Amino acid sequence: EVTSVGIITPGDLDPCKLNKWLGYLLHTYGSDIFRRKGVLSIKGEAKRFVFQGVHMLFDGRPERPWGEQPRRNSLIFIGRNLNRAELNEGFKACLA
After folding, report:
1. Of 10, 1, 2, 4, which is closest to residue 87 (Cα–Cα)?
2. Per-residue pLDDT tens for 22-57?
3. Which residues fall within 8 angstroms of residue 82, CB to CB, at 6 or more apart?
4. Closest CA to 50 of 35, 67, 42, 4
5. Residues 2, 4: Cα–Cα separation, whole Å
6. CA 3 to CA 85: how far, in whole Å?
7. Is 16 helix (H, G, I), strand (E, B) or coil?
8. What is the CA radius of gyration of the chain?
9. What whole-number distance in Å separates Cα of residue 73 and Cα of residue 21?
10. 49 has which bridge partners?
11. What is the CB neighbour count within 10 angstroms for residue 70?
């Protein structure tokens, strides 16, 4: 069954923890995660980081500055056999 898991949380992300977690997800669940996209707040970066991915492909880059907009993270995963609790816990562990 195809489902989606959305995560919205304030705070800045530790880029090393985030890269490690995303690598783990792709390695472990790559065939089950069909699509992922989001806007992230990376610690020490003035610009929003926008990313998207389809299966094992990933593209991301800094976008426009946050400016007066509150910094937050917003992402979604679309796939099968998605574990909402595990995705939320893993992502929150990436916060700086």
Report:
1. 4
2. 999 988 888 899 999 999 999 999 999 999 988 878
3. 3, 4, 5, 32, 33
4. 42
5. 7
6. 14
7. helix
8. 13
9. 15
10. 40, 62
11. 7
- CB count within 10 Å of CB 86 equals 12
Q: For residues 63 and 77, give the distance between their C-alpha atoms in angstroms, rounded to a whole number.
A: 20
Read off the pLDDT of each residue in 50-74 and give the average, rounded to a whole number: 92
Instruction: For residues 54 and 59, give the distance between their C-alpha atoms in angstroms, rounded to a whole number.
Output: 9
Burial of 23 (0-12, 13-18, 19+ CB in 10 A): exposed
The mean pLDDT value for 68-81 works out to 95
Given this model, what pLDDT does residue 10 score?
A: 96
